[in-house]
Amino acid sequence: MTGVVKPPILTLEEFLKQPETKPASEFIDGRVEQKPMPQGKHSRLQLRFCDQINEIAEAAQIAMAFPELRCTFGGRSIVPDATVFYWERIPFDANGEVANAFETYPDWTIEILSPDQTTTKVIRNILHCLKHGSQLGWLIDPDERVILVFRPEQLPTELVGDDVLPVLPALTLALTVNDVFAWLKGRQRL
Questions:
Q1: How far is Cα 56 from Cα 53, in angstroms, rounded to an integer?
Q2: Confidence at residue 127, expressed as pLDDT on a 0 to 100 scale
Q3: Torsion-angle region of residue 14: left (phi > 0), alpha (psi -120 to 50) or beta?
Q4: Are strands 146-150 and 157-159 parallel, antiparallel or unpaired?
């Protein structure tokens, strides 16, 4: 009788010494899991979200949004689709440039569900962020046109249509679910 062979369990330190993969791999509960390759809708939502946040928050040094940023904390190394860090929590190096390693939780984590992802895995990463200090998490489902909002110590909230989405308190950004999904439409040619 042959048993199922499980992949070897690495330590977080061993994982971080490995070369980066494309698409990114994450370290979760001692296992390496590669994220699916982002597709069109996913990439568009990710880009527009980061652009919107950075347009209102970066110049004023309130916060900064990052796409596909590796965050290592709480025994995991994850790569959310987008993260937002308050300015004072962004690690800068000796040259005043954004550091390469972010060994902390994001203030806001955003995951965009891809067709090849399980909802449970994505939610587990959002919950991990909230457990370790994140203030807000969004799970964007492009197929269902729903955004689930996660906050510490609260049940998730399902938002659709003209529902206004919560953002970090210091940000002056008013977005509805419809606004977010309108980012998927191409501009009309004249």
A1: 6
A2: 97
A3: alpha
A4: antiparallel
